[in-house]
Amino acid sequence: MARRSSPVCRLCRREGAKLFLKGNRCDTPKCAFERRESAPGMSTFRHGKQTDYGAHLREKQKVKHHYGLLERQFRKVFALAEKGKGNTGEALMSLLERRLDNIVYRLGFGISRAQSRLLVGHGHVTVNGRRVDIASYLTRPGDVIRVKNRPKSLQLVQAVLAESHREVPDFLSRVEGQQPEGHVLRMPEAADASIPVQAQLIVELCSK
């Protein structure tokens, strides 16, 4: 699993949008993007007008950073979206939203997508009663994502649920209690993404 060691708040400023990479901190006055929206670097303003290529690239980079993917990982998801039927952009966003690490985050079990990947990778969650430690695992309607019934797993997730009150999207449902669990109700759509995305720009860039 890839690990980013540089400050993630710079990514929000670079893309000109809040990507919610630091969990609850992004909703407080401590958010670096709220305090300083200019792009990182010595210059406090952008030189020249953004080109069409630049606009396409920034949209792709925004989505990559938001979901925590490297270029090779993103290309694999895009290739899978191209093979499917229907609109490639819609299929791409649906695949990204179906990732297990994203589902764990949207259910509120992890304070950020980075922490959610760790929860999955360390075996703290199960899918339909089976341990799944692959962050890119694609969930389906009817799947039940449950926190593993062991003290360490329950303690980690219940601490996040007590601190965060993140709203669960329409395609999911969450059942809190001694052993929290979530249900995938339907296939996610592009509109279910937690940030606005112009998927067509990404398709035009990656299809060249």
Secondary structural class: alpha+beta
Global mean pLDDT: 84
In CATH, what is the class of the largest domain?
Answer: Mainly Alpha
Low-confidence stretches: none
H/E series:
HHHHHHHEEEHEEH
The CATH topology of the largest domain corresponds to Ribosomal Protein S4 Delta 41, Chain A, domain 1
Using DSSP, what is the number of strands?
5
The profile of the biggest β sheet is: 5 strands, antiparallel
Using the CA coordinates, give the radius of gyration: 18 Å
Q: Which second-level CATH architecture of the largest domain applies?
A: Orthogonal Bundle
Count of separate structural domains: 2
Spatially, the strands of the biggest sheet line up as: 2-1-3-5-4
As a percent range, the share of strand residues is 5-15%
**Helical amount:** 40-55%
Shape: globular
How far apart lie the N and C ends?
Answer: 28 Å
Instruction: Give me the CATH superfamily of the largest domain.
Output: Ribosomal protein S4/S9, N-terminal domain
Number of helices, where a helix is a run of at least 4 consecutive DSSP H or I residues: 9
Keyphrases for this structure?
208 residues, alpha+beta, Ribosomal Protein S4 Delta 41, Chain A, domain 1, Structural Genomics Hypothetical 15.5 Kd Protein In mrcA-pckA Intergenic Region, Chain A, 5-stranded antiparallel sheet, 42% helix
